[in-house]
């Protein structure tokens, strides 16, 4: 008996497949990370093909012009300071390269959204995301410093401050600090679900942010906990987050779907450095087609429910568009 329903009819040609595509990935849905280093004339990929670019502020302008012209959704800036401190003081001096980078970016592409990472891991000698007493990561004391950092970013013109530290109560504290300084228009993109993941290695190399002792399991989430992830994102919404982010993306597609079904807030997902590196390494070994695998991975993140993807692939896509 021949089948009466033939779904292959809707896959027969490229034009038909395009007509019935349920999801798509466009450049406007991608955000490119950059690591801002001190000095001038610095532009280096940490490892060939890694997608992780360290730039001095003076060279960021040419990058954002390229991305803006291609239609990329924004840039996310991470600081790599010249000097590290463990007391949370001298923050403005540590962040000076980022201030310059924001100025350069706004000058080159005034309307391109700028996202700035709010965390202490790259700014401390111990590499943890908050202040430390002995080997205990302090929560409330850290939140105060993170709020101060957010106010500085907002004053400099950042569109989204992005707390990635996973301290309790930091979204409410940052929102209060921003509002007290008349910065009500600055948005908060909260890393609502951030796992204590094995996939951050290349990032930590680029940001000089590997923990000097222990691990981050006392504040970043355990990968085993799905209900806790929902509690985290709902708390951040209650505290005033404007948008939410899930990290890593590819190993947490179920949590992206959960988040999409739990709320209507804009949802970001971060395709992290280790996920990108795995595909690159497999391609270099001749095991997969890198571009097809990359396309498929981004589509799976969108299909799961992410509105925007932070990915090291945004720049290569922009370059390919010319």
Description:
By secondary structure, this protein is α/β, with parallel strands linked by helices. It is built from 12 helices and 12 strands. The strands form 2 sheets. The protein has an 8-stranded parallel β-barrel, surrounded by 7 helices. The model has no long low-confidence stretch (mean pLDDT 96).
Keywords:
322 residues; 12 strands; 8-stranded parallel β-barrel; TIM Barrel; 17% strand; two-stranded antiparallel sheet; 12 helices; 40% helix; alpha/beta
Note the run of SSEs as H and E: HEEEHEHHEEEHEHEHHEHEHHEH
With strands numbered from the N-terminus, the spatial order across the biggest sheet is 1-4-5-8-9-10-11-12
Please write the CATH class name: Alpha Beta
CATH architecture: Alpha-Beta Barrel
**Sequence stretches where pLDDT stays below 50 over 5 or more residues:** none
Annotated CATH homologous superfamily: Aldolase class I
Number of helices: 12
Report the CATH topology name: TIM Barrel
Sheet having the most strands: 8 strands, parallel, barrel
Shape: globular
Calculate the terminal CA-CA distance, rounded to whole Å.
52 Å
**Overall tally of structural domains:** 1
Would you tell me the overall average pLDDT? 96
Sheet/helix structural class: alpha/beta
Cα-atom radius of gyration: 20 Å
């Amino acid at each position: 008996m021949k089948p009466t329903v033939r779904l292959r009819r809707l896959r027969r040609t490229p034009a038909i497949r395009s007509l019935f595509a349920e999801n798509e990935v466009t450049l406007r849905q991608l955000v490119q990370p950059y690591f801002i280093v001190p000095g001038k004339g610095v532009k280096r990929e940490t490892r060939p093909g890694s997608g992780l670019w360290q730039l001095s502020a003076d060279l960021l302008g040419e990058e954002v012009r390229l991305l803006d012209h291609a239609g990329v959704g924004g840039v996310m800036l991470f600081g790599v300071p010249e000097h590290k401190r463990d007391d949370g003081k001298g923050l403005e001096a540590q962040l000076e390269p980022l201030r310059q980078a924001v100025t350069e970016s706004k000058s080159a592409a005034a309307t391109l959204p700028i996202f700035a990472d709010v965390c202490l891991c790259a700014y401390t000698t111990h590499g943890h995301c908050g202040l430390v007493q002995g080997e205990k990561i302090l929560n409330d004391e850290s939140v105060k410093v993170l709020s101060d950092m957010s106010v500085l970013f907002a004053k400099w013109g950042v569109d989204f401050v992005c707390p990635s530290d996973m301290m309790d109560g930091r979204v409410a504290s940052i929102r209060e600090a921003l509002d007290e300084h008349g910065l009500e228009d600055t948005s908060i993109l909260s890393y609502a679900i951030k796992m204590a993941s094995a996939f951050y290695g290349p990032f930590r190399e680029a940001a000089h942010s590997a923990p000097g002792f222990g691990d981050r399991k006392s504040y970043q989430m355990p990968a085993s906990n799905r209900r806790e992830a929902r509690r985290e994102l709902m708390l951040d919404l209650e505290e005033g987050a404007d948008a939410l982010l899930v990290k890593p993306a590819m190993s947490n597609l179920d949590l992206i779907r959960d988040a999409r079904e739990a709320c209507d807030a804009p949802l970001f997902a971060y395709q992290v450095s280790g996920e990108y590196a795995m595909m690159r390494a497999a391609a270099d070994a001749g095991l997969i087609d890198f571009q097809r695998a990359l396309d498929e991975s981004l589509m799976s993140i969108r299909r799961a429910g992410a509105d925007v993807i932070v990915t090291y692939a945004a720049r290569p896509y922009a370059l390919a568009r010319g």
